[in-house]
Write a structure and sequence with these properties.
- There is one protein chain.
- The chain is built from eight helices and six strands; from the N terminus they run H-E-H-E-E-H-H-E-H-E-H-E-H-H.
- By secondary structure, it is of the alpha/beta class.
- It has one domain: von Willebrand factor, type A domain (Rossmann fold, 3-Layer(aba) Sandwich).
- It has a six-stranded mixed β-sheet with strand order 3-2-1-4-5-6, sandwiched between helices.
């Protein structure tokens, strides 16, 4: 009798397998500031996630990983999610907590994820930057070809300057939004999702003010 050795697939084997049979799926990391002042923005972002997935439904699909930072040193990444319902469920269980920004940790994390399997884009949603700009720029340079899109709530010029430099280094873009106009954030998220899934051509096809703003910066 011949004995057949069975190989039990690991998570890595499965990820590699599905990547081969579904190469068109985009991978997008969304990092959101969950410090104390951000609860309202967090709740709004959670409600807008479905629109992101809808925006790429005809392009090839979207896998999203949520990263959030809060408190003294908490920076958490979810598993990769392929539908809005799962992403919203995770977001609804998170409460914002006082602390400072941890954008550098986000950049380092995405660099590691990208080394394992391609990440098409990173979105950072925040209103502040309380870290050393030099440390952030150094981490941004390590990202290679992962464009970073930074969406700033408010109009603090010092924050805008740092965000702009990170976008320049990574080949991404920046945009400001006012939570009173949640539709703008929705359009920005849809635009980046389209870009992640189909590149500049898909972004241009969005035909929205947000898409035009990002497209103008990406062409520079």
């Amino acid at each position: 009798m011949t004995t057949i050795a069975l190989t039990i697939p690991t998570r890595g084997h499965l990820d590699a397998f599905f990547a081969k049979i579904d190469p068109a799926r985009a991978r997008l990391v969304i990092a959101i500031d969950a410090t104390a002042s951000r609860q309202k923005t967090w709740d709004t972002a959670a409600k807008l996630t479905a629109q992101m997935f809808d925006a790429v439904a005809g392009i090839g699909g979207l896998d999203t990983q949520l990263v959030y930072f809060r408190g003294a040193s908490e920076c958490v990444a979810s598993r990769w999610l392929s539908d809005a319902k799962s992403l919203t469920r995770i977001m609804s269980g998170v409460m914002c907590r006082a602390g400072e920004t941890q954008i550098r940790k986000v950049l380092v994390h995405v660099n590691k994820e990208h080394a394992r399997q391609r990440v098409d884009a990173l979105v950072v949603i925040s209103d502040a930057c309380e870290e050393s700009p030099g440390d952030l720029y150094s981490a941004a340079r390590e990202l290679g070809n992962v464009p970073v899109f930074l969406f700033q709530e408010g109009d603090a010029e010092d924050v805008a300057k740092v965000y702009g430099e990170i976008a320049r280094i990574t080949g991404g873009a920046v945009a400001k939004f006012d939570l009173g106009a949640a539709g703008r954030l929705a359009e920005l998220l849809k635009a980046v999702a389209a870009f992640a899934a189909g590149g500049v051509k898909a972004l241009a096809a969005q035909n929205s003010e947000a898409a035009t703003l990002l497209l103008t910066q990406l062409k520079k």
